[in-house]
Write a structure and sequence with these properties.
Leucine-rich Repeat Variant, 72% helix, mainly alpha, single chain, repeat
Amino acid sequence: MEDSTAESSTCMSPVASKTQLDWSECPTKKKSAKKQKCGRKSKKSDELIQYKLSLIEASNNPGQHGFTLMMIAEEIEEGYAVNCSPSQIKAVISCIKHVMKDTCALACGAMILQVAIEEDVANLDIVREEGAIDLMVECMKFHAGDADVQSSCCIALASYIELAIGDYLAPVPYQPKSAARARQAGGAEAVVTAMKRFPKKRELQECACAALRSIGGDQEAGVERVRNAGGIEVAIAALRNHGKNLKVAEQAFSLLFSLWGEGEMQTCRMFGEAGAIEAIMDTMLMHKMRGELQLKGSILLTVASSTLQNCARLQKHGGVEFVMLTMRNHHDMWALQEVSCKTFANLALLGMPTQDAIRTVGGIDAIESAMKTYGKVARVQEEGCRALHCLANSNPVNTDRILELDGIPKIIGTMKVHRKNVTVQMHGIKALNVLIGVNKASQLLASEADSIKERVRPEGIKAVITAMRLHKEEADFQRKGSVALESMARGNEENRKKIDGLLADA
């Protein structure tokens, strides 16, 4: 069997893969999946709009109906319903093309299309195929110096793809074809240009972040297009200029997360060098009690901390104290506790000074508390065990603190509750190996002077053997389990007999 000291010297590298963090725990991320009521008026009111739409549809000169678009939009804002036929949608798009120089008519036409999509998502195909997405990008370029037009077009682009913005609008399901059309038309570049041109326009920054997230989509090619256009930099600038505004903060956080893509390490470096860590932390401090935003920001910081360079940036900006504050303020959010444990584990890899700093601010106690509170949540237990493993690694003082808090019984209890979860078992055994190797905890497990410690000994051995039996196909897990058993048996005949007996039964 392998020596336990070898195990204790190899703590995991920083972990924060995008696929390991569930952004869906942020309630605002799922808004686009829920149909929201818009409070439209009765069908009788719809007749007013239908008449005006029929005028546009029947006209041989669409350019004459800019004012008609404005009247329809005014009635929409008052709550009137819109039920556009395919031919009416085509007529509205044609009208927008002809009145493009009229910024007010342009914005009103874009709104009509948004509401038509809201009433019937099938209309989105017509809007896309008739060139409305390309038209919005063209309008942004034509009216590059008009912030209001830029905002209206950003709202339209986001709504035509996925995320509707505005009290009167409902989100639509994500449309990858629409996102691809926007990218082909140069939408990402146009939106980034608008954000750079008008950095102080709060509403524009909010809408533009939403548009960029939708344009990038969930495919690496789309995400890379937005990154290359400067999406990371403008999102960070939006936080710096408007971080106090909750809506801007939420949209910018969502955009930053979407831009992670698959090239994680390279993107991590880009985020760190662009100042994302500092901007995210500063924004979170402005909204300390906003749980949803804190969770989004914590996820971003955890992902960012997957490189040691970014861990150093995070620590330099007060990251240890910051993570601790977040855990204390939102102890009722298990997902936030999970990602905070993950961040502490990553920070611990900077070495003993950072490990000591985490202990000093109460980090070990907070991790143990999270594990106790959310004992049935496997992900909290997984990251809690990993954090204890990294904090105790080659650090006797931290190990003593973990033992004082009954860390070994808690880890064993976690392994018993989640015995079928191989990830929990793996991190649990890693934590046990470090604790046993550093502080000779095999003697602790064998102690007959303390009734609590006496109960730990057979339970700990049994938990490890049970886990090895349940996950016998996992070679690395078997190796680490063997290390734990050898450490428990070394110098303790009673433990060795117990292990031999259980193995014989197995």
